Amino acid sequence: MKKPVLALIVALAVHARADLLITEFLAANTGTSLLDEDGDASDWIEIHNSGETAAPLGGYRITDSAADLAKWTFPDVSIPAGGYLVIFASSKNRMPSSGQLHTNFNLSKNGEYLGLIDPSGTIVHEYAPTFPAQQDDVSYGIGPDGIAVGYFITTTPGAANSVSTAGRVADTKFSVNRGVFTSSFSVEITSTTAGAQIRYTTNGSTPTSTTGTVYTAPVPIQGTTVLRAAAFKTGLFPTNVDTQSYLFPSDVRTQFANGSAPAGWPSAAVNGQVYDYGMDPDITNRYTAAEMENALTAIPSVMLTTDIGNLTNATTGIYSNALQDGIEWERVGHMEIFGGEMTVPVSSPCGLRIRGGASRVASNPKHAFRVFFRSDYGNGKLNYPLFGTEGVDGFEKIDFRTEQNYSWSKDGDLSQNTFLRDLLARDLQGAIGQPYTRSYFYHLYLNGIYWGLYMSQERSEANWGASY
Questions:
Q1: How many CB atoms lie within 10 A of CB 26?
Q2: Is the dihedral of CA 257, 262, 267, 273 positive or negative?
Q3: What is the spatial distance between Cα 41 and Cα 36, in angstroms, rounded to a whole number?
Q4: How far is Cα 451 from Cα 311, in angstroms, rounded to an integer?
Q5: Each residue's pLDDT tens digit in the chain (468 positions)?
Q6: Of the candidates 370, 405, 367, which has an alpha carbon nearest to the alpha carbon of residue 273?
Q7: Quick check: 56 and 32 in contact, CB under 8 A?
Q8: Rg (CA), the chain
Q9: 464 phi and psi, to 5 degrees?
Q10: Quick one: which of 368, 428, 433 has its CA closest to 401?
């Protein structure tokens, strides 16, 4: 969900000892900031003593819940006059008299209460009712003037804060929403923040303050295009990256028909992984243009977008290293679903991984995907009924399968292809009242490039069982 422009919603309450403040905290540490003694990228909280005498903290509490002001209690430690103390919000719950301190809670990236409480139960300093949503490796707290509250692009745990940003640039808006098109048009991109600079890309890459094309006029869209944009302004936190895909079935059937690599994509195998572009001439020569376009719009399309290196890089790309698994092989991306019988398009930031068994091997040029929806990417869940009234309307993950164990591409045996058979078996299981995983057919695109027919499937794990 897109977030509105942040106002100064944080209430700062100072009571008993006014020289103790939570001056900075980091709720989304990915490892570029301070690490704890275990080498973990734990959240952290900085407390500053601006007084002229040392501040003993024994018996003080810190909490992330306004309903539980005694959640974690400090041991007998103190902060010298003008000094700082950094504690890790790691849930490790360590309270040594010397060494690193760890609370029994983590901080929420989505925003929550944070307060420092004295031994009598009086609130010394708080961020209430909640601090605003946070971004990876960007801290939040009180600026050098001791009053203004905002984000810090440069974190300074244990030291005076740098100049903070005053808020967030207003989100970008597109004059044309994602979907299927038959004729060209132009897209206007706007932000209501005066003086903000908008940058955009059309190759799937993430626009930054220094990369992408500076927006000066509406962007012409003349064929299948993935348009990504973000807005920036000095002193303000930038917007998130918005993604809008425009699909033209008339050009998909002839995309890279000569087999040449799209700009930025590998022209040769990477780690033995073959990249096969363009539709097979055996298919395009068999059907008319109208028949092909009708087939491309008969069912919905899934648009997966990510920086090309996340897929193809020889060392870190998930597609070029398809046998690798686990969260360290998950890459940030964006998913859109529209077309076919869908009346409301789907759009969500997500994490992308390769999934499957036989479909992972390099001899199969077409791999399957698993898409994750986490708060780290902006949405805790995908809240959309992907299977209509047949299934639930909330998903933490979803698979897009290719069926490569018995297939024309692996064994050259059409009679053994399981692409239809597997789905039929699952649907029949559901029809007799047994638990089953739901599926649907989609055309799938990577950064706007047609990648073939895929089948979605619910992942039969604990969260799937709980959802039903």
A1: 28
A2: negative
A3: 7
A4: 13
A5: 333 333 333 333 333 456 899 999 999 998 888 999 999 999 999 999 999 999 999 999 999 999 999 999 999 999 999 999 999 999 999 999 889 999 999 999 889 999 999 999 999 999 999 998 888 888 999 988 788 788 888 899 999 998 766 677 899 999 999 999 999 999 999 999 999 999 999 999 999 999 999 999 999 999 999 999 999 988 787 888 999 999 999 999 999 988 899 999 999 999 999 998 988 888 889 999 999 999 999 999 999 999 999 999 999 999 999 999 999 999 999 999 999 999 899 999 999 999 988 889 887 889 999 999 987 787 778 999 999 989 999 999 999 998 777 666 666 666 666 778 888 999 999 999 999 999 999 999 999 999 999 999 998 888 888 888
A6: 367
A7: no
A8: 26
A9: -65, -50
A10: 368
C-alpha neighbours within 13 Å on the C-beta side of residue 177: 9
Q: Under a CB-based contact definition with an 8 Å cutoff, are residues 187 and 175 in contact?
A: yes
Which residues touch 461 (CB under 8 Å, ≥6 apart)? none
Cα–chain center distance at 442: 22
Which amino acid would we find at residue 458?
E
Beta carbons of 369 and 329 less than 8 angstroms apart: no
* Dist CA 261 CA 273 (whole Å): 14
Number of residues written out for the chain: 468
Token pair of 382, please? 């995908």
CB 311 within 8 A of CB 446: yes
